[in-house]
Amino acid sequence: MSLPRIQDDLYMAVNGTWQQNTVIPPDKSVVSADSDLTDSIRIKLVADLKKINAAPQAADLPLQNAARLFAKANDKVRRNQLGMTPVRARLDKIAGLKTLAQFRAALPKLLAEQYVLPVSPYVDADMHDAAHNILNLGGPATILPDAAMYQTDDAENAADLAAWSKMVATLLGEAGFDQTAQAHYVAAAKSFDRRLAAFIPANVDFAVDSTFDNPLTWTEFVEDAGFLGIPEALAAKMPQTPTKVNAVVPAYLPHLSTLITEANYPEWQAWMLISELLACADYLSDDSRQLAGQYDRFLAGQPEPEAWEKHAFGVANDYFDDAIGQYYGQTYFGADAKADITAMVKEILQQYQVQLEHNTWLSPATKQKAIRKLATMKIKMGYPDQLFPLYATLHVEPEPDLLPTILQLSQQTQDFWLQQVGQPVDRNVWGMPGHLVNACYDPMKNDITFPAGILQPPYYSLNWTRAQKSWRYRCYHRSR
User: Fold this and answer.
1) b/e per residue, 54-91, with b = 16+ CB within 10 A?
2) How far apart are CA 441 and CA 382, in angstroms?
3) CA 227, CA 260: separation in Å to the nearest integer?
């Protein structure tokens, strides 16, 4: 196929040959310069984590923990040998909670042991007081990728739900449930899912930040979720009961008491059991993790699961990304490059200030606020100098297998964050790890982050001229 003229189609004239000749690997849904960089970084880090685990150095415990977790995740023989055994007790526990009253009585322990629950707590800066952390309350996601899809019954929806049902039934069978139980759990979970969809915003609504901003008083939270004992269980893990929380999905909590009742409790139980199985399957055998990813790959048009070592690295990265990123930045980026790009960004921000000072169409008050925002912006280039205190609380012991280790790390992470509710926001925390090929501006913390992963050709090099660096930086910054 011949390429168009530049004046007819600039994009295809420049990229047409690459687009025609590039083959997307079967374990990916996209390829790009960024994904190529990500692959090369991961290959380096996998080799390094193997060396670190083989010859541990006590000086960097978070990195040692990352290497140990990677080794557990990468032990295919042990994981295949265990099969579904590590998750069976958790599934049996859920199946044994026959009534809503039994579920409520068990809830504090379920929260502590990291079971899937009707409310997912996480901590972040308060949208109305960005200097302090607030408890945010999320909920389940629908089976279909967009809640708006439930407004119509068409062939696409039917195909998606059929793919999900087939995956789940097979996974339940692998976990030891007979065909009658498989059919019951799949049908009941789909019934809960359809009722849930009525209270979940469409994807287009989630693109608007205000959708996530729904402050509730603690009293209102108790009125919505107290019948399940969720507020009481969370309060026991926080330094003090907060006066307010934030509901991530506006309509979900007010309707929780109709979504989960004594009469329809079996539907929630089925949803919980299946969600637990799907959440844990990624840490079981290779067959289990491949099977549990079938539906997502179906939606993405990705023929094959990601390679085993890539998967194992992802497990370690989920819990120790900052430790891995700091190591990557210090080892492959370096202090000189960090100082260089930081100085360049400061110069650019100074030029923004000059432009604002000479601006003729903004009001004086607006200009002063914009200048103050520039002056207080936190610049995060390359990698963090110090790790977030969370990492001092995470421990990976040698003995436990992968799933118990993951559950322990999840518990340690949740316990740490719940202690931060109402506390000042730590602006030294990085929103992206040092090895990530990306960049961002965080309006909640007023910081700009360019990890070391993106600060390499074709985007940056310490050896380039200042003009080359500035041009590439500005292009990438604007594209973000």
Assistant:
1) eeeeeebbbbbbbbbbbbbbbeeeebeebebebbeebb
2) 14
3) 10
Q: What is the largest CA-CA distance in the chain?
A: 74
Long-range contacts of 166-170 (CB under 8 A, 24+ apart): 166/294, 167/291, 167/292, 167/294, 167/295, 168/274, 168/277, 168/278, 170/291
- The pLDDT value recorded for residue 366 is 96
Question: How many CA atoms, within 13 angstroms, populate the side-chain half-sphere of residue 359?
Answer: 17
Q: What is the pTM of this model?
A: 0.93
How far is residue 245 from each of residues 134, 423, 427, measured CA to CA in Å?
6, 13, 21
The stretch 469-479 carries a mean pLDDT of 62
Least-confidence region, from 146-160, 279-293, 298-312, 464-478: 464-478
- pLDDT, average across residues 290-306: 96
Place of tokens 């789909």: 190
Residue with tokens 């696409």: 156
Three-state secondary structure readout of 3-30:
CCCCCCCHHHHHHHHHHHHCCCCCCCCC
C-alpha R_g of the chain: 25
- With contact defined as beta carbons under 8 Å apart, do 45 and 324 qualify? yes
Please, what is the angle between helix 100-112 and helix 265-281, to 10°?
30
Q: What percent of the chain has pLDDT over 90?
A: 88
Nearest to 140 by CA among 295, 21, 252: 252
Mapped onto helix, strand or coil, the DSSP state of residue 59 is coil
Q: What is the DSSP letter of 120?
A: E
Give tens-digit pLDDT for 115-137.
999 999 999 999 999 999 999 99
Q: How far apart are CA 142 and CA 53, in angstroms?
A: 39
Which SS3 state, helix, strand or coil, does residue 470 take?
helix
Report the SS3 class of residue 350: helix
Rounded Cα gap, residues 17 and 13, in angstroms: 8
User: 443 and 437 in contact (C-beta within 8 Å)?
Assistant: no
Q: What is the dihedral of CA 111, 203, 320, 133, to 10 degrees?
A: -60
- Euclidean distance between CA atoms 456 and 349, whole angstroms: 21
Dig out the tokens for 189 from the structure: 């979970």
Q: How far apart are CA 271 and CA 441, in angstroms?
A: 36
Domains in the chain: ranges and CATH:
10-81+311-479 (3.40.390), 88-283 (1.10.1380.10)
Task: State the residue for tokens 């958790």.
Answer: 90
Check if the beta carbon of residue 161 is closer than 8 Å to that of residue 144: yes
